[in-house]
Design brief:
The protein has 202 residues and is α/β, with parallel strands linked by helices. The protein contains five helices and eleven strands. The chain has a single domain, classed as Rossmann fold, CATH 3.40.50.1820. Bound molecules: D-malate (MLT).
Length: 202
C-alpha cells in the first residue's frame, strides 16, 4: 500500500462525519484544515498531501501543462489514493458513509477521478473548482451518491464549460450532482464555505 503524508483531527462527536481534505497544487496536509473547520467545526478531518512534486509543489497526479493531465498517472494515483483511504478509514474508525471528500482544484480533480473510476470510498463530495480529469471512463457502480460542485463564473483555470461537462459525466455514474456557479475566479471565497455548510445538512 502507498502511504500518504496526512493529518487526522478527530471530530468532537463520536460517529459523526469526517471530511477528507484534498489540497490544490502547491498545498499540503495543513492547507485545508481551516476550510474543513469552517465547513463543519464538529467533523473529523483527514487531510492528505499529494505525492507528486511539480517543481517542489505537491499535487495528487502529474500534469503535462496547465489543464493538460497525464491521464495514465491520474488513473494510477486514484487507485493508490483509494487503497490508502481503505486502510485509513479502518485505522481511524471512520465509516464509509460518514466520509465526505472536500477537494480544491487539483484535489477536486483527483476526487472526481476516483468517482469516475468507481473507486471513491466516500459517500459524498464537495468539489471546489473542479475540471475534467479523464477524457474517457467506463460506466461504474455509483459510490459517491451526492456531489456538490462549486465553480467560479470567471475561473480561467476550471472554466465553466469544463465544469458542465464534468457534472454531466458525474451524473452518468448515478450520483446526484448540484452544480453551482458563483461570482469568483479560481480562488475560494466565503460563499464556498456558506454553501458547503448548507449543503451538508440537506
Ligand atoms: C491546479 O492548479 O491545481 C490545477 O490547475 C488543477 C490541476 O492541475 O489539477
Amino acid at each position: 500500500m502507498t502511504e500518504f503524508v496526512h493529518r487526522f483531527v478527530p471530530g468532537s462527536s463520536s460517529g459523526g462525519r469526517t471530511l477528507l481534505l484534498l489540497h490544490g497544487t502547491g498545498g499540503d496536509e495543513n492547507d485545508l484544515i481551516p476550510l474543513g473547520k469552517a465547513i463543519d467545526p464538529n467533523a473529523g478531518l483527514l487531510s492528505l498531501r499529494g505525492q507528486v512534486l511539480e517543481n517542489g509543489a505537491p499535487r495528487f497526479f502529474r500534469r503535462l501543462a496547465e489543464g493538460v493531465f497525464d491521464e495514465e498517472d491520474v488513473v494510477r494515483r486514484s487507485h493508490e489514493l483509494a487503497g490508502f483511504l481503505e486502510s485509513a478509514v479502518q485505522k481511524y474508525g471512520i465509516s464509509g458513509p460518514d466520509l465526505i471528500a472536500v477537494g480544491y482544484s487539483n484535489g477536486a480533480n483527483i476526487a472526481a477521478a476516483m468517482i469516475l473510476l468507481g473507486v471513491a470510498p466516500f459517500s459524498r463530495a464537495i468539489l471546489l473548482r473542479a475540471m475534467v480529469p479523464l477524457t474517457n471512463s467506463d460506466p461504474v457502480e455509483p459510490k459517491a451518491r451526492r456531489i456538490l460542485m462549486l465553480e467560479g463564473e470567471a475561473d480561467p483555470i476550471a472554466q465553466p464549460a469544463q465544469a458542465k461537462v464534468l457534472a454531466t459525466r458525474l451524473q452518468a455514474t448515478g450520483a446526484r450532482v448540484d452544480l453551482l456557479f458563483q461570482k469568483s475566479g479560481h480562488e475560494l471565497t466565503g460563499e464556498d464555505v456558506a454553501t458547503s455548510r448548507q449543503w451538508l445538512v440537506k
